[in-house]
């Protein structure tokens, strides 16, 4: 006398549907009364199942990537919560809830228009800096004649000196790199 299809499925660690399919395909034998002899069925299952489709029996614990653990530790540390050597499920759950709360806050800030889009802000700063630079480059041409007349010197010489000093100053300003963090 054998065991039921569901009991055999639990024994194999598969669904009862997988056992039904295996019996219909003839990969495992059924007893006369519709039950399954686990010893015969295990041997037949292993022999008649395609090796590429076999699942390795493992414990149901999956390894957690060290980056995920590091992320949990970092989140807890940012909140001033203790982090011991091993990360517990409760600590991971707490870090997850903290992260969800941060995301919800960011979504709300975005909806309110309080957050700035980084690429758009960078493009805007770049455009404004370029306009400022162009304005300064054109300034000596506009004022050189007026300044030369006031000082009583050659206009061309005044423009050249002003352009040299403006370009030197702009080169110094170009070394400043804005950081959007």
Q: Please indicate the percent range of residues in DSSP E strands (runs of 2 or more).
A: under 5%
Number of domains: 3
Largest sheet: none
| Average pLDDT reading | 85
| Helix proportion range | 55-70%
Total strands: 0
Structural class: mainly alpha
- What coarse outline follows from CA principal-axis ratios? rod-shaped
Amino-to-carboxy terminus distance: 71 Å
What sequence of helices (H) and strands (E) makes up the elements? HHHHHHH
Descriptive report:
Helices cover 66% and strands 0% of the residues. The chain has helices spanning 5-12, 16-24, 38-48, 66-78, 89-112, 118-151, 155-174. The longest helix has 34 residues, at 118-151. The model has no long low-confidence stretch (mean pLDDT 85).
Task: Give a concise summary.
It contains 7 helices and no strands. With 181 residues, the chain is mostly helical.
Q: Which structural traits does this protein have?
A:
single chain, 181 residues, mainly alpha, 3 domains, rod-shaped
Question: What is the fold's blueprint, element by element?
Answer:
Layout (H helix, E strand, L loop, with lengths): L4 H8 L3 H9 L13 H11 L17 H13 L10 H24 L5 H34 L3 H20 L7
């Amino acid at each position: 006398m054998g065991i039921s299809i569901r009991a055999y499925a639990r024994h194999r660690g598969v669904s009862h549907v997988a056992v039904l399919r295996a019996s219909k395909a003839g990969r495992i034998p059924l007893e006369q009364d519709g039950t399954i002899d686990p010893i015969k069925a295990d041997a037949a299952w292993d022999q008649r199942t395609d090796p590429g489709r076999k699942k390795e029996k493992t414990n149901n614990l999956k390894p957690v990537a060290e980056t995920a653990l590091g992320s949990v530790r970092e989140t807890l540390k940012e909140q001033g919560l203790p982090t011991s050597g091993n990360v517990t499920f409760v600590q991971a759950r707490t870090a997850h809830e903290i992260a969800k709360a941060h995301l919800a806050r960011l979504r709300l800030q975005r909806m309110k228009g309080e957050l700035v889009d980084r690429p758009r802000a960078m493009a805007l700063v770049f455009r404004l800096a370029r306009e400022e630079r162009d304005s300064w480059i054109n300034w000596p041409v506009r004022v050189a004649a007026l300044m030369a007349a006031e000082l009583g010197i050659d206009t061309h010489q005044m423009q050249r000196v002003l352009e040299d000093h403006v370009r030197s100053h702009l080169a110094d300003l170009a070394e400043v790199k804005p950081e959007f963090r």
